Amino acid sequence: MASPSQRESGAVFPDEAGAGATDKQGRGADHLNNRIFFRLFQVANTLQKQAVKELGVTTVQWAVLGALSDPRPTHGMSVGTLADFLVVSRQNLDGVLKRLERDGLVERVTDAADKRARVVRLTREGFAFWAGLRERIFGFYDQAVSGFRFDDRVALAHYLNEMQRDLMQVRLEQPQRERKKAKRRV
To answer: Does pTM top 0.90 for this prediction?
Structure first.
């Protein structure tokens, strides 16, 4: 029997892999996949917790400020474009933007190209705040991946990109009961 520390490592053990010889790889893959996605969940939560503790901002606030600090969209970004870029819902982004507006770091202004539209952009205070935060973020990154060689970091970035691409392609058929409920809602 494996010790708890061995189980926490993410290793798949024979007793977890399923009883049948032909099923071992399939069940083992299920357990390994479960471990991978559970670890991603834990890593994301740890990142969120440490970002707030060490930097004083949430990961979404950090991402919004970083996206808006890019000098290319000097006129700002629409909420929809920003939400798509960050892969968050517009509803969740709106709450974050309201807090950043309250703090004077972002503002919503009329789009110069389309007077009917509004865009989000950093304020002067937002750019100054980001400039100070950016160096701390680099230190945060350095400490967070200090145990990785450069090639390991490249490989990790590659595999995370691959996983995100594959996640975007996931399409599961709804169970029969759920399909009936969905049809009634339409």
So the answer is: no
